[in-house]
Amino acid sequence: MEEDRRSAARGGALAEEMASWVGARIDAAHANPATGLVALAVYAGARRVLGAGIGPRVAGVGVLPRLPRLRAGGAHPLLAAMRAHLVGRRVLAIEVRGDGIAVIVGDLSTVEEDQDDELPGEAGPSVAAAPAPGLSPTAPAPGLSPGSPAPGLGPGSPAPGLGPGSTAPGLDPAPAAAARLELAPGRRGEVRLLDGAGNLILRWPPQGSAPPAEIAYPEDPLAAGAALVEASDDAAAGQEKAALARAVKARRAALERRAEAVRGDLGRLGSVARLQKTGQLLLAQGARVPRGAAKALLDDWETGGKIEVALDPARPAKAQAEAFFAKARRYQRGEAVMRARLAETERALEAIAALEADVAAAEARPEALEPLAQRARSLGVARAEIAGAGAAVAGGPGAAGGARAPRAGRTAPRRPFHAYRSASGAAILVGRGAEDNDALTTKHARPHDLWLHAKGVAGSHVVVPLPKGASCPADVLVDAATLAAHFSDARGEAVCEVSYVPRRYVRKPRGAAPGAVVFDREKVIAVRIEGARLSRLLATKEEG
User: Fold this and answer.
1) 134, 158, 180: which is closest to 26 by C-alpha?
2) Cα separation of 336 and 265, whole Å?
3) pLDDT grade, residue 213 (50/70/90)?
4) Contacts (Cβ under 8 Å, ≥6 apart) of 354
5) 20 to 30 A from 187, CA-CA: which of 2, 216, 260, 514?
6) 3-state SS string over 238-288?
């Protein structure tokens, strides 16, 4: 019984603090769903902010000294609903009950014509304080009595404290409720937004929860609010730092894989002499190789031994010598590009390793994380992978609730393609392997996207996403064709022909091998491989 009386007194302290808010206009609504802090700001002589922590990171209720620094963007469904139904309206009544807080809002118009010219947020007579009749600044409004729940707001019933025939000073009589926000603070609390008729508009979290039967209200709402907003910002910043650290680590691993792959390509340069030698022997001895043979044993004049060579049975052996010479030339011509790419990758690895150390040493604060997030983006870390690290300050772009990021402890699903960027910023998608080519073409590419493939040789499928009805700009087409040539068996050739068609004309035959497709209405571009263009494109790689 004694505990119930103390809880009632604490609820009364909060009710008394918010009594003067009745009649004030709601000018902001914010939340950080990752931490569970919901904030509602009104102007009642000065800005006042009600904060409720509904979990999982923060719990409790109080009057905040400021808005949270780290909060969701306006695209989040909770934010969108609160801003659509609450912001710009006035508070009709506030109920502080044992099971939570209810804020009832409506559209109140003033009877004083000169108030129509007031700017939003200015302290006008009808905004600064408009309590219900008989409400003193220090007394709880009807429906805010501590210890006993206020009656619910049913369809068509007047808001508590503003009954039929009574008005707040300067306001039209009998204002109708437009919406009702119900807050149940707690580690497993919830938010419910209802319309004036009591119909549910939104419930957060969507799966529901089990809020406590009795809310533990603070004795000092101002001190509790200060602790609540600091705890939310600290928890959110910690999550932002962890997300940034994971993204930087993943980028470092991707760069290490790229460097290893380029070193493997360079390792094949040692086979140039062997390829040239095989071509020479085949050219000299091919006439005595039986037609239709799948392999040949050639005399090695240098060692006195034999060299076994795999052949295409459909072509004369002597005619296949040029293929060995061409492969040797491709390796030689690609050496400069590969060495430049390796040097660039090693420089990026040094930069990403330094960034990784700086992230680990950084304080979990928005002002410390934002410059690190910008460095990460400049080193090729995708914005979505950073999950808004440091960019959620003041609800800016990339705040929580904007781009959806993987949950903590989970990795993003593997994409069947790598993304590159043209000089104009257009995305170019390149399949990662035979089965990935199928997935890119048949599942990710849309019918109006542009599809490319190096003509007559094995290679990656390349897709340029395009708006419906748009044509591919010439510079993007050349960039995409350059990548299609590079990621094919024509790599290293000075000039390569590349086929391109809208994706709708590409189809996968039943039973075809992975990566094998057929297409019609083909157009062909002969692209000259420019080292500077290729290096620029490869530097924009976004790991899948």
Assistant:
1) 180
2) 12
3) low
4) none
5) 2
6) HHHHHHHHHHHHHHHHHHHHHHHHHHHHHHHHHHHHHHHHHHHHHHHHHHH
